[in-house]
Amino acid sequence: MTKVIALAGKGGTGKTTTSALLLKYLIARKKTPVLAVDADANANLNELVGLDVQTTLGEIRKELKGDMPTGMSRDQYMEMKIHQALIEETGFDLMVMGQPDGPGCYCAANQYLAMTMDKLADNYEYIIVDNEAGMEHLSRMNLRSIDYLFIVSDPSARGIMTARRIADITGPLKLEIKHQYLMVNRAPDPVPRALQAKIDEAVAEADMDLAGIISSSDDLIDQELSGASYLELAEDSKVIEQVFAVFDAIFEHSA
């Protein structure tokens, strides 16, 4: 069975960084193949894994407003274009959602997208969805059941408060979430008592467990500034060891 991993959180908390590190972890642990979906309107997951994007699903949805090729239905055309938009790499594929829809109704396009995602899902062991805070894309892709939701925060009171709010809205969205976690990025080492208290309070009062607290890392900063892929980070670097330990505790325990 394909397992769906979604990430959410307010802007700037490190959702995309966490997605890239999670992808590196799954590849290293041979939990492949993986489909990585960049569902954030400000798409940049491809940059962190060193890939260029030629086509986004937002562009494909716009094409569905026009005429279809002769002898091809809209769902056949959508399925063909989605497969063309997949960026295929060793151990994983990447798909970029692109900018949100403009004026007009895209209900039919989103329906075709959901149908095609259902078919794609069977080809992967894991699907990672780097998502916006509102999580609307999860409904559009028909991913109603989520095995792991990582709500990502920076080491700030606002970030942790937003994480709590996201945890609270998953119920009204009628998403079936099997495991829900808080992950705090770029934390000082050691963690200040005030920050730890905010984290403990959020975990206690919201329906989520603490996945881990990831320390601020010069390795990640240097990798991003150089434009190098996060997938190339050495596994003996401090941040990778820390991240892998967090994910081992989650995925090996719940496997």
Structural summary, described in words:
This protein is of the alpha/beta class. It has a single domain (3-254), classed as P-loop containing nucleotide triphosphate hydrolases (Rossmann fold, 3-Layer(aba) Sandwich), CATH 3.40.50.300. Helix content is 43%, strand content 20%. It has 10 helices and 8 strands. It has helices spanning 15-28, 45-48, 57-63, 74-85, 107-121, 136-140, 157-169, 193-205, 218-226, 238-254, and strands at residues 3-8, 34-38, 87-89, 92-96, 126-130, 145-153, 176-187, 209-215. An 8-stranded mixed sheet has the order 3-4-2-5-1-6-7-8, sandwiched between helices. β7, α8 (193-205) and β8 (209-215) form a beta-alpha-beta unit. The mean pLDDT is 86.
Task: Describe the structure using short key phrases.
255 residues; alpha/beta; Rossmann fold; eight-stranded mixed sheet; 10 helices; 8 strands
Estimated structural class = alpha/beta
The helix content, as a percent range, equals 40-55%
Number of strands: 8
Residue-averaged pLDDT, rounded? 86
Task: Write down the secondary-structure element order.
Answer: EHEHHHEEHEHEHEHEHH
CATH superfamily: P-loop containing nucleotide triphosphate hydrolases
The second-level CATH architecture is: 3-Layer(aba) Sandwich
What is the CATH top level name? Alpha Beta
Low-confidence stretches: none
Could you provide a short overview of the structure?
The chain has 255 residues and is α/β, with parallel strands linked by helices.
